[in-house]
């Protein structure tokens, strides 16, 4: 099973293959990681559908999008799991999932569950000035950060947006020297210190492993 | 050809009734040097600082705000325009107090504890100052003691709180609840704002109003302050 390209995952998402008892409805930014976990663990009972990753920048679209996806697919599966954290919905996604009777991942966002919610929470007070990237967001930095903030047109605004930040923390799911170089470059472009923290798949793996 | 003509505009040669709209265009386009130049020209022509502020800067920024609300302009362009307005305000600010500009009231504002995002707060501060409010900006990552300390020392009409994160916005309720515990909640108008907030959240935490953007914040502040003054006059 191969994942589609990042651009498709960003803008369109991914339809399910129609194989497996349990459907995981995920953010497109998690497609590569969930696909890798499925392959590594032989989780053939899981099917995967992804919603557009760019909703990371438009959290108001997430809960309605998940609601529509659950309605579209629920008759074809024994169960549905939502591979999102709160992701800026202000509790809206949790309320939607509770109403629909589907489970989701705990925590504020993917940075937290990759890092491990307990560890992330414990560090929260010390890292309020940290800007996070994951593997996907490091690869798609221009599409998710640079262009939407207008920094391609007005690079001088980086100080306005990121002046209160101190460091960029790259939460790495994989060991990839090229991606590490890219993340380091992202930090330099934003004028921030750089730190790499290898997380692996964190609580994402734990949550998916529980889906029997 | 059109570009050449635009490049040829010499602000100092424009009469007032052409210069002011041109400054509005320059502000809209984020041209801070041109806006500052226009402000200086109007001062030299004897315009009162308050008149320049309202007729040349605030009116221009109102167009920017309306176009942002209507989806014509986006955040980067608004920030460029705001920087241009700031350049003009920097010239006018010291002159406004000297020339007896009208005062609408006073606001203490800050981004809540755990949150370092201040773009929205800074826009509100600037527009409130443009509307004639004194603004005491507590900055970012503001805890309840800092808010309450500033209320005591500054005695503002309004407390403004801002948050960008769903994880930090509940802290606004901590501040409002603490004000209530100390019996001072009714002494201040509490306005809240930030991308993840909405009116329902504002009501739920006991704020007086949620303000969707800087322009709404100014109008809401004016309305509440006017109501407060009317009540005091009636009382």
UniProtKB/TrEMBL annotation, chain A:
A Pfam family reported for this protein in Swiss-Prot or TrEMBL: DUF1638
InterPro entries registered for this protein in UniProt: DUF1638 (IPR012437)
Domain DUF1638 per the UniProt entry, residue ranges: 50-208
Top-level taxonomic group: Bacteria
Protein name: DUF1638 domain-containing protein
Organism in which the protein naturally occurs: Rhodovulum iodosum
From TrEMBL, chain B:
Residue span, B12-binding N-terminal domain: 10-104
InterPro entries: Cbl-bd_cap, Cobalamin-bd, Cobalamin-bd_sf, Met_Synthase/Corrinoid, Meth_synthase_dom
Keyword Metal-binding among UniProt keywords: yes
Keywords for the protein's UniProt record, in alphabetical order: Cobalt, Metal-binding
Domain B12-binding: 104-235
Recorded superkingdom: Bacteria
Pfam families: B12-binding (PF02310), B12-binding_2 (PF02607)
Protein's name according to its UniProt entry: Methanogenic corrinoid protein MtbC1
Protein's organism: Rhodovulum iodosum
